[in-house]
Amino acid sequence: MAFTETHKPCPDCDSSDGLAYNDDGSSKCFVCDTYTPAAKVDNVRELGSISDVPKPSFSQTEHRLITAEYRSITDRLITGSTAKKYAALKQGDVTTFGYYNPDDPTKPIAAKVRNPDKRFSIIGDWKQAGLYGQHLFPEGGKYVTIVEGEYDALAAHQMTGSMYPVVSVRNGATSAAKDCRLFYDWLNSFENIVICFDADEPGQRASKECADLFGNKARIVKHVNGYKDACDYLVNNQADAYTKAFWSAQPYTPEGIVGAGELRDLIKKPLTKAKVQYPFEGLNKHLYGIRTAELVTICAGSGLGKSTLLREIVSSIMAQSEDNLGLMFLEETPERTMRGLVGLELNKPIHLPDCEYDDTDIDLVYDTMDYENRVYLWEHFGSNEIENVLGRMRYFVKVLGVRYIVLDHVSILVSDQSNGDERRALDMIMTKLRTFVQEMGICMFLVSHLRRPEGKQLEDGAVTSLGMLRGSASIAQLSDAVIGAERNSQSDDPIVRNTTVLRVLKNRYTGKTGKACEVFYNEATSPAGVHEWSTFSFRGGGGRIVSPWGMGHPLFA
Questions:
Q1: DSSP class of 17
Q2: 511: which residues sit within 8 A by CB, 6+ positions away?
C-alpha cells in the first residue's frame, strides 16, 4: 500500500494533520494510532493494523457487556467483582473493555476489543467515551490514579483495596497528555493525581507530560524491583510492593526546580576557587577568576585594545590549564591571530614587517604553549549567520574538546541577518549564544562594540556603562560579566595614551562592580602585551615597571 493523501484531520482524536489515506481506501492516524479499514463495518476503528478476527457490531457487544455473567480473569489474577465493576469481559482469548460516557454510567457507548494477536479494535461512539473507568467515580476526592492501559486499571484498583479511583487513558502513552487535557476538569477535582504509567521510555516521558499539567497535585509512581506496570505487580503476587510504591510517590517537581532540602549537604562543602585566573589581579578581586558555563562580554570603543586584552586572557588560560581553546577573531585572519599570540609570548610585534625573529623563536613558543594541540581557529570565509557560527562552535566543543571560546565580535554576526532590525537580530543571537554556553558548559568571551556617547567620546577616555552597549539590552541581561575598557587614545602623553582602565560593569557572581585596575601597553619594551600598573602581576610576575618615561608620571603616584 502507498499513501495517497497525508496530513489530514483525524475524526477520532481531532488532530489537525495526523491522518493519512492509503491507496486501498483505508486510513491511519499517526497521532492516536487509529486504523480505519477501507470497508468500515458497524463503526469499527482498529488500532495498529488489520486483524483477521471478526469484528462484532457494537449493538451485539453492548448487549453482552450489560447481560454478561462476569467471571475472574485468571491469567491476570483479576477477580470477578473487579471485572464486573469495570465491564471487562473475557471470552476465550478475546477481552472486551466497556467504555462509558462519564455523564451516563448506565450503559456502555463504546468498547475496545483485545484480540488474540494483542491488537485492539474500537467499536461504538468513541468520541463520547471518557477515560476507562471514569464513569465509576464522581467528581472530587482524595486520590485518583491514571494508568496506561485497561488491564493496569483493573490491577491497580484491586491492589489498593478497590478503595480509590483508577482510570486508564484511552490510547496508551502516545496520547496520554491529550486525554488528560480533554478530561482536565474531572482529574483536577481530586486532591492528588497519581500517575502510574509503564516503566519504559515512552511511559516515563508521558508521565512528565501529564504531571506538568497538574503541578504539585501530581505524583509519579516509581516502579520497583524491575516491574514495568501495575499489571506486572499483580500477576507476580506483589500487591504489597505496588501499594508501597503507590504510597511512596512524591509530589511531582518539574525539571529545573530543586527543593532547598536537597541542597543542605551541598552548601556545607566549601566552594573551590576557579582554576583559571585573569591575568590582572584587579579583575580577579572583582570576578574571582574565569569559570566555565559563563558568558563574559568585553566592550570598548573601536581601536581601544579589545583584541589585545583578549590575547592576554587567552595566554593566561593557556598557562594555567590544559584545556583547549577555540578562537573566532572575525576581523582578522587566523594567521594574524596567531602572530599576535606568539608575539605576546616573545614580547615582539611579529605582526609587523620590520620585526626581526627566526624560526626557532616560533618553534619554542609553539612547543612551550602547546598551541599545536590546544588552540583551534576558524577561517571564517562565507556566511557569518548565527547557525553557521554555532555549528562551528559545536564542532569545537564536541569533537575538538574546546572548553573556552573567544568570539570577536558579535556585531559582525548581526550584520549578516539583521534585515534592518538590529535589536531583534541581536536579541536572537544573544539568546542562542547564552543557551549554547549553558548547554555545553563552556566559557565564552564575547566582544561587543559600544555606541558613541554624548559629550566626551570613547577615544578620549569616556567612562563606559552598560547603557552604551550597542544594539540591545540583551547583551547585558544575558552576560554573566561585562568588562568595559577605557582609554584616551588621542592623548599627547604616551603614558596616558597607552593606559587602559578595566571597569567591571556587570558581575553576576559577586555583584561587585566598578574600576578594577589600570593596565599599560608599553610601546617601547612590551609592544605585544599589556601589564597591570599596581602589581605587574601578569602570570605571577612582580616588581616595578621600567618605563622610558621614568616613574615621575602622575599615573605612578
A1: S
A2: none
Q: Are strands 295-300 and 218-220 parallel, antiparallel or unpaired?
A: unpaired
Q: Under 8 Å CB-to-CB from 216, ≥6 apart: which residues?
A: 251, 252
Q: What is the pLDDT of residues 137-194, one digit of tens each?
A: 988 899 999 999 999 999 999 999 998 999 999 998 988 999 999 999 999 999 999 9
CA distance 308 to 289: 19
* Same domain, residue pair 238 and 287: no
Side chain identity at residue 52, one-letter code:
D
Count of other CB atoms within 10 angstroms of residue 461: 20
Q: What burial class does residue 27 get, using C-beta atoms within 10 Å of its C-beta: 0-12 exposed, 13-18 middle, 19+ buried?
A: buried
Task: Kindly report, residue by residue over 65-96, the tens digit of the pLDDT.
Answer: 988 889 999 999 999 999 999 999 998 889 99
Count of structural domains within the chain: 2
One-character DSSP codes across 438-480: HHHT-EEEEEEEBPPPSSS-TTBTPPP-GGGBSS-THHHHH-S
Domain around 145: 131-256
Q: Are residues 468 and 330 in the same domain?
A: yes
Q: Which residues partner with 47 through β-bridges? A: 34, 120
CATH number for the domain harbouring residue 244:
3.40.1360.10
Backbone torsion region of residue 77, taken as left when φ is above 0, otherwise alpha when ψ lies between -120 and 50, otherwise beta: left
Tell me if residue 379 falls in helix, strand or coil.
coil
In a domain, 352, yes or no: yes
pTM: 0.56
Q: What digits encode the pLDDT tens for the residues 302-347?
A: 878 788 889 999 999 999 999 999 999 988 899 999 998 998 888 8
Residue 405 lies in a domain: yes
Residue 265 lies in a domain: no
